[in-house]
Structures are given as C-alpha cells and as structure tokens.
Design goal:
The structure holds 2 protein chains of 2 kinds. By secondary structure, chain A is an all-alpha fold. Chain A has one domain: MetI-like fold. Chain A is built from 12 helices and no strands. In chain A, helix 5 crosses helix 7 and helix 11 crosses helix 12. Chain B is α/β, with parallel strands linked by helices. Chain B has 2 domains: 166 residues, Periplasmic binding protein-like II (D-Maltodextrin-Binding Protein, domain 2), CATH 3.40.190; 148 residues, 3-Layer(aba) Sandwich (D-Maltodextrin-Binding Protein, domain 2), CATH 3.40.190. In chain B, 43% of the residues lie in helices and 18% in strands. In chain B, strands 1, 2, 3, 4, 5, 6, 7, 8, 9 and 10 form a 10-stranded mixed sheet that branches. In chain B, helix 2 links the parallel strand 1 and strand 2. Chain B is globular and about 75 Å long. Classes of the chains: A mainly alpha, B alpha/beta. Chains A and B meet through helix 3 and helix 11 of A and strand 7 and helix 14 of B.
C-alpha cells in the first residue's frame, strides 16, 4: 500500500483516538491538576495517599491480583490439556470460550448474585444436602468470583493461542535430550507461554483494577474499591477535581502493571519468533 | 410524462394531508410540555386529558431531581410544567424559575389535603407556587415472620440483634438521616458534632449491615435475604403485595417526609392550559388512576376517603398524623455540610 493510501485509511481511527481518548484524557488531567476555582494544585493528584483512598487502592490491587492469579490457574491447565489432546479444532474451542460473552456482563453478574445470595440457588441445594451454607455474598470473595467469571475469556484466549503455537518439535527435542516432564514444563512450555500469560494478565488486571459495577452488585455496597470512590466523586459528591485526581493516580498504577507484564511478554515473544 | 403526473399527484396529496393540520392549528392546537419522574403518571390519563381539552401533551421524563434540574436549566426544551421533589422545588422557586399559580381558579384544588399544603410551606413559604402531587416517608420494612418483637424505633438497626440481616439505603443523605434521627437530632442539622456522632454510629453499625442498596432493597426483603431494611414508603406497599410477611413502620423518633409537587415554569406562556392540566390532576378519578399506578401516598383527600378499608389503614399508603409527627422534610444543606457528609460517608464505606 502506498504511503498516501495508508494515511487516508488511518483517518477514521485517528479521529476516534483524538475524540475519545486524547481529548477526554486532557480534560481529566486538567481537572485533576486544578481546584474548583481553576487554580493549579497538586492536592487532588496526591489525594491517593489519603488513608481512605489508599485503603481502597490497596483493596483494588489485592482483588485484581487475586482475580488474575485465579484466571491463570484455571486457564493454563486447560490450554495444556487442549494441546496434548487429539481434538485440534480450535475454532470450536474458541467458540465455546467466547460463548458466555454473548450475554451482557451485568446480566451475568446479576445471575451470579441470584446464585450465591443467602437464599439463593446454591444455598438451597446445600441445605437440601444438609451441608453448611455458603456465605460469600457481600464480601470481597463474591467480587472476585464475579470478576473471574467475567474476565476469564480474556485470559483463556491469549494463553490458549500461545500454548497451541508452541511447536511440538521443540518439546520432542527436549525429551530426546533427556528432559523429564517437569523439566519440559519449566524450561520449555512455561517460558514459551509467558507472552500469552503476560497479555492475559494485562487484559484481566486492568479492568479488575478499575471495576466498580461488580463491586456494587456483589459487594452489596459494603466494599469500597477505588473505582467506587471515583464513581461516587463524579456522580454523588460532584467533586470532579478529586474524581479526576484519583483517576490519574489509578492510571499510573495501571500503566505500571502494563509496563511490567507487557515488557516481559514482548521479549519472550521475540525469542519465540526467532 | 408519466413521471410528471406522479409528481403532481404527490404534491396534491401532500397539500391535502397538511390542510387539516393547518386549519387545526388556527383554532386549538395547544401543546403543553410536561416534565415528570419516570413511571410517575398513568399514561392513559394523558390521553384522556387531550381528549377532554384538545390540548396536546409533550411528555418528558427523568429519574433524579438533579437530572431534571440539569435538563431544565440547559434550556434545550422549553418545559411548561415540572414535577420534582421538595428541595429541588425550593431551589427552582429561589432561582425565580416558577410562576405563581392561581389556586382559586382550580376547582378541584379543594380535594388536596390541607395537612400536606401546610407541610409544603417548608419549601414553598406562602403556598404560592407548588401543587402537591405525591408524598411519603422513609421507614423500616421488616419481616414479621422473623422479627417477633414489635419494631417501632430506629434503634433496632443499631442494637446488633439482627446482625447481618439489615439493609441500609445506599444513599448518603438517607443513611445519615436514620442515624441522626436515632440519636434524636434533626435530619437537617448543620452541627458538625452531631453529624460526626451520626457517622460514628453508622461506622459501628456497618458490620451488622448485610448490604447498602437503593432500588433492590425491596426485592431482597421480598426474597428474605435480609429481615429488615430502610425503604421508601412507596416500595413498602408493593413489598407487602409480593410477600405478605413484610410490614412497614415509621419509627417513633421520626423520619424523612418527602413531597413531590408540580410547578408552572416561568417560560410557560399558555398558563390557561397549564391551569387546566393541574386541575385535571386534582380530579378524583385522575388522581385515583395515578395512585393505583404507583401506590405512593396521595395528597388527594377525595381519593383517600373512597379507598378500601385495607388500603386506608396501611401506614405505608396513608400515614397517620401521629406517625408523621416527628418527621421532617429535607432542606438543602450548605456546601460545607455537604462536604463533611461526603467525607464521612466515604470513611463509613471504607470501614
């Protein structure tokens, strides 16, 4: 394609990015670094260190981290099983994995709420079997369950893609040279699939960090993540400066994680291609 | 040739179609733009009004007072009549957005309960601007199958007996209201110590709270996922319909009493039409249809008088005078107090 053609074709996307990413970001930065009177201040950017906000941030990080970890633990074995199985029709596998995403995610969270609530379906079954009831609704655990449910496909797809792409020859070669199963896993499979896990983590960790809807529905309004604080500042307290300041702080943390995992993945990816 | 004829026919048709509209306009094509909360008026009544008077209604809806205020002040649509809540009515009156209503020209105004008109003075000092539409309270909806002792005080939410079984409102003002009233303070207090004391009480209470909800509170109580919760009286009637164990009480310490009223905006030019619409809403039939559409408390005496005994004795639908004796209407808080509320509410939520 000629240079000119490329330029013309990229116009829609550039307009999109300017209109919906660059300009809103500038607004947020402007609000974050000024006070209600419009004077420059660092107060709102540093508000993240306020005990209430710091607590919410730490909780957000903890829940996002747990969610990502659980997603890896669930996805990776599935990917390995599919790699070794005879069933190689990846299209069908992908289809099954994306299937839950056909439904609106809030609807799915409301369904989870019905399942795990105190008089919900699961507790009814448990009591019929004379088993102790499950009391996780309105706790951080419920939020993690909801986030894992919603974000698992974002982990599964990259991990699966990556694991399936590892050439069998390499594994065979390793075995020929005397590597045991564990060694094959730690020295061949794992390093070669790090890029998939890395991008999976980025795709799960980032939305989990900024989550507030799931926290509201499954946390019963009792658990305050940083996303909830920001939402409240914008919609209830009408303090857009503080809301923006906290958003910028959250963005910094998100960028740090993306950098950590993104960097690692690009490195191993290059090795693999070579 | 054929094409030309087609054009001609089309033009003739268009002229014929627009003719009746033109002639209609000259005599009585009057329109009122009405702004109301969503699902707050029986749509059949709008049709009936147009049939009776020939005045067309352009109906607009919003969900919160703040949303209404924003839409109203941006001025994209010029509203003639607007129905909103007490403190927002006050704000609009204070900003000069309301026109005086000549209530003596509304024959059906006599249906409106004097008690509610007097209460309305807290936001419309001389009763010159606002026509009460619906009103109600905030109270405790509890499950009589699980709560055996009589519930009559907010303290039941704070004494720890029903730990893990309580639903609070996920709304700053309503939650503070409960704590302030439990402590015996006014819900409009601006005293920092009283507000901080209320916040301490709410923080201590948090471990006993199952969840903080808004609209789902009623459904959770119906499903018996909790035994008691703070709800608006309008939710209580339907809650009881779905689960007959649920009872509503306005605690003896008093609560929030709210009144939603109509005002005529200053931009309304056809005040005669506006007057006809307001009088229409006060008609017994119409007020009853609207009441049966949402089951909030109606200020229309004629409707209350003709209710079934069962409805009339339901305190969620028709609060008794003594039950609302200690109730207060929200007043707008000054910015400093609002900031204090915001800050303390965040602390409570992060406990």
């Amino acid at each position: 394609m000629s240079r000119k053609k490329v330029q013309v074709l990229s116009i829609p996307y550039i307009l999109w990015v300017i209109g919906f990413t660059v300009i809103p970001l500038l607004f947020v930065f402007a609000k974050a670094s000024t006070n209600a009177e419009g004077d420059l201040t660092l107060e709102y950017l540093l508000a993240i260190f306020d005990p209430v906000h710091r607590k919410a941030l730490l909780l957000s990080i903890a829940l996002a981290f747990t969610t990502s970890l659980i997603c890896v633990v669930i996805s990776y074995p599935v990917a390995l099983i599919l790699k070794t199985s005879k069933f190689k029709n990846t299209k069908i596998i992908m289809f099954v994995m994306i299937l839950p995403m056909w439904m609106n995610f809030i609807l799915r969270i409301l369904a989870i709420q019905l399942l795990i609530s105190k008089n919900g379906v699961i507790n009814h079954l448990l009591s019929m079997l004379n088993l102790p009831s499950l009391n996780i609704i309105n706790t951080p655990a419920a939020i993690v369950v909801g986030m894992v449910y919603d974000y698992l496909p974002y982990m599964l797809l990259p991990v699966l893609n990556c694991v399936l792409a590892i050439p069998d020859d390499i594994i065979e070669a390793g075995k020929d040279l005397g590597a045991g199963r564990l060694r094959v896993f730690t020295r061949i499979l794992l390093p070669l699939s790090l890029s998939g896990i890395g991008s999976g983590i980025t795709m799960v960790f980032v939305p989990s960090m900024t989550e507030f809807v799931i926290a509201n529905i499954l946390g019963g309004g009792k658990i305050q993540l940083l996303g909830n604080v920001i939402e409240q500042e914008f919609s209830v307290s009408m303090n857009w400066n503080l809301g923006s300041g906290l958003s910028v702080a959250l963005m910094v943390f998100v960028l740090i994680t993306t950098f950590l995992f993104g960097h690692d993945s690009s490195g191993s990816n290059r090795n693999f291609v070579l | 040739m054929k094409y030309k004829r087609l054009c001609l026919v089309t033009v003739v048709c268009i002229i014929l179609c627009t003719l009746p509209a033109c002639s209609g306009k000259s005599s009585d094509d009057r329109t009122l733009t009405v702004f109301n909360y969503s699902e707050y008026l029986d749509p059949d009544m709008l049709e009936r009004f147009t049939e009776q008077t020939g005045i067309r209604i352009q109906y607009e809806e919003a969900t919160t007072p703040e949303e209404m205020y924003t839409k109203y002040t941006t001025g994209a649509i010029s509203y003639d009549l607007l129905c909103t809540s007490d403190y927002m009515i006050k704000r609009l009156i204070d900003e000069g957005e309301a026109q005086e209503i000549d209530f003596s020209a509304l024959p059906n105004y006599s249906n409106i309960d004097d008690k509610i008109i007097t209460l309305s003075k807290s936001f419309d000092k001389d009763n010159r601007y606002a026509l009460p539409y619906f009103w109600g309270t905030v109270g405790i909806l509890y499950n009589t199958g699980k709560v055996t002792a009589p519930v009559d005080s907010w303290n039941v939410l704070f004494d720890g007996e029903y730990s893990g079984e309580i639903i609070m409102q996920d709304s700053m003002r309503d939650s503070f209201m409960v704590a302030l009233k439990a402590l015996g303070y006014s819900l409009n207090t601006t005293d920092e110590n009283e507000i901080r004391e209320a916040a301490e009480l709410l923080k201590k209470q948090k471990k006993d709270v199952a969840s903080y909800l808004v609209d789902e509170a009623r459904d959770e109580l119906v499903a018996e996922n909790a035994v008691m919760g703070v709800v608006y009286s309008g939710e209580a009637y339907l809650g009881n319909e779905y689960n007959s164990d649920l009872e509503y009480v306005i605690p003896k310490e008093g609560s929030n009493l709210w009144i939603d009223s109509w005002i005529v905006t200053k931009s309304c030019t056809d005040t005669d039409a506006a007057r006809q619409f307001l009088d229409f809403l006060c008609e017994e039939d119409v007020a009853n249809a609207n009441f049966e559409y949402i089951y909030f408390s109606t200020p229309n005496k004629a409707v209350v008088d003709d209710m079934d005994e069962e409805l009339k004795t339901n305190t969620a639908v028709v609060p008794t005078d003594e039950s609302i004796e200690n109730c207060e209407i929200y007043e707008a808080l000054d910015p400093d107090t609002t900031n204090l509320y915001n800050e303390l509410w965040k602390e409570i939520k992060s406990e």
